[in-house]
């Protein structure tokens, strides 16, 4: 049980991430099944690794956005490969930040680097995901709470890093 008394059994891996000047950084382990025949991370698996990186940033009990795990939809996704990431360069480092924040949705920016890469180095992968806060019961988008918006606003990046 975490020191704050919560019983959050949804934790995926040891690294819960941390805030930096560039965003929220999580190290995500790459599994054997994540690679393709050339030992690169498979595209579909890269999308999954990005999703896994978001979990400790947005959905753990101690985050103001934790209620979104009951209703948050992907509306748009873009992935651009600028370099290779191989299976043996695990765990990958995923830096996440907010590019755009509105009443019911926000766009997450990602920079993915192989294990041990300088945080200032050009990312091997850059991506964006537009996420919509959603009410499952009404099947409609829902306005984010002031606490959710304040938390996300603290990660808004006003100038591109890469």
Explained architecture:
Strands 1, 2, 3, 4, 5, 6 and 7 form a seven-stranded antiparallel β-sheet that branches. This protein has 162 residues and is of the alpha+beta class. A hairpin with a 3-residue loop joins strand 4 and strand 5. About 5% of the residues have low confidence.
Helix content: 10-25%
- Based on secondary structure, the structural category is alpha+beta
Radius of gyration: 16 Å
Q: How much beta, percentage-wise?
A: 25-35%
- Low-confidence residue ranges: 4-11
Q: Total number of β-strand segments?
A: 7
Largest sheet: 7 strands, antiparallel
Quaternary structure state of the chains depicted? single chain
What is the residue-mean pLDDT, rounded to a whole number?
A: 89
Q: What best-fitting shape do the alpha-carbon axes yield? A: globular
Order of helices and strands: EEHEEEEEH
Q: What is the terminal-to-terminal distance?
A: 38 Å
Number of alpha- plus pi-helical segments: 2
How would the blueprint of this fold be written?
Layout: E1 18-20, E2 23-28, H1 43-59, E3 72-81, E4 92-101, E5 105-113, E6 125-135, E7 140-141, H2 146-153
Antiparallel strand pairs: 1-2, 2-4, 3-6, 4-5, 5-6, 6-7
In short:
The chain is of the alpha+beta class and 162 residues long. The chain has helices at 43-59, 146-153, and strands at 18-20, 23-28, 72-81, 92-101, 105-113, 125-135, 140-141.
Which key terms come to mind for this protein?
single chain; 162 residues; alpha+beta; seven-stranded antiparallel sheet; 2 helices
């Amino acid at each position: 049980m975490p020191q704050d008394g919560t019983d959050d059994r949804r934790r995926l891996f040891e690294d819960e991430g941390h805030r930096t000047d560039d965003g929220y950084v999580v190290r995500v382990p790459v599994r054997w099944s994540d690679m393709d025949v050339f030992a690169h991370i498979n595209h579909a698996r890269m999308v999954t690794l990005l999703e896994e990186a978001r979990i400790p940033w947005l959905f753990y009990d101690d985050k103001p956005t934790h209620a979104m795990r009951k209703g948050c939809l992907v509306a748009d996704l873009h992935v651009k490969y600028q370099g290779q990431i191989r299976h043996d360069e695990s765990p990958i480092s995923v830096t996440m930040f907010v590019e755009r924040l509105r009443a019911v949705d926000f766009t997450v920016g990602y920079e993915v680097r192989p294990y041990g890469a300088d945080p200032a180095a050009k990312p091997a992968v850059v991506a964006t995901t537009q996420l919509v806060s959603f009410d499952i019961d009404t099947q409609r988008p829902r306005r984010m709470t002031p606490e959710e918006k304040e938390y996300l606003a603290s990660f808004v990046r006003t100038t591109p890093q890469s």
